[in-house]
Design goal:
Largest sheet: 3 strands, antiparallel
Distance between the termini: 48 Å
Low-confidence stretches: none
Number of strands: 3
Structural class: mainly alpha
Mean pLDDT: 90
Shape: globular
Number of helices: 9
Order of helices and strands: HEHHEEHHHHHH
Radius of gyration: 19 Å
């Protein structure tokens, strides 16, 4: 029974550690011990080791012998490199998305984004901001998923975690949230019209503005 429980404990620990990092509860640059992380997740130290190694591979933390575990610090270099990688990955996918992506999916994304855009004009509550951020991610995820390429998907997933870390400590202002949703609609409308070049230009501008916003928020 004990051996059967260990994989579940590792999954629980990984999920708990990751959510605390990406929510900003564990601050960038903060040092913690393995025992402290284990206590946060409510698991023994043993099952915590593998999740820590996994999160280190995902570059969300760094385990320093004799010093402790440091949550990845946010620097201008990290921001630039993360958004530049996002641009490379998504520009490699947007043409396929715009020319061969499911029209039903594109229509659903437009409807979802337009609804969020309408609500964002009057609702600035924390709960809605969290929902709007997930609407944002839904489109970016869909662009990558349209390729059906596991190598792209794996690189994107790891980089997306870094961007979520950056965003957790650099929350969108209400005006920027409106801009982001408008930028998404421009990308999606171009994709719906099967205008791949226009969609690519709109995506490039959107990622560039997001990178600049993150750098200004440091």
């Amino acid at each position: 029974r004990r051996s059967a429980e260990l994989p579940l404990l590792r999954v629980d620990a990984y999920t708990s550690f990751r959510s605390r990092i990406l929510s900003g509860e564990l601050k960038p640059g903060q040092f913690v011990t393995q025992r402290e992380l284990s206590e946060l997740a409510g698991v023994p130290v043993g099952p915590a080791r593998e999740p820590i190694q996994r999160l280190e591979f995902e570059t969300l933390l760094q385990d320093y012998p004799q010093r402790g575990i440091q949550i990845t610090d946010i620097s201008a270099k990290l921001i630039r490199e993360s958004y530049e990688l996002r641009l490379v990955l998504e520009m490699g996918a947007i043409r396929h998305f715009a020319t061969e992506g499911s029209m039903d999916l594109i229509d659903a994304l437009i409807e979802q984004t337009a609804a969020a855009r309408s609500r964002a004009s009057y609702d600035q509550g924390e709960a809605f901001r969290a929902e709007a951020v997930e609407v944002d991610w839904t489109m970016h995820d869909a662009v990558i998923e349209s390729l059906n390429n596991q190598c792209f998907a794996d690189a994107y997933r790891i980089n997306a975690a870094r961007i979520r870390l950056i965003r957790a400590n650099n929350v969108f202002s209400p005006s920027r949230m409106l801009e982001v949703l408008d930028e998404h609609l421009a990308i999606l409308e171009a994709a719906r019209a099967r205008k791949a070049t226009q969609a690519g230009k709109a995506l490039q501008a959107h990622i560039g503005k997001s990178k600049d916003f993150a750098l200004r928020g440091m």
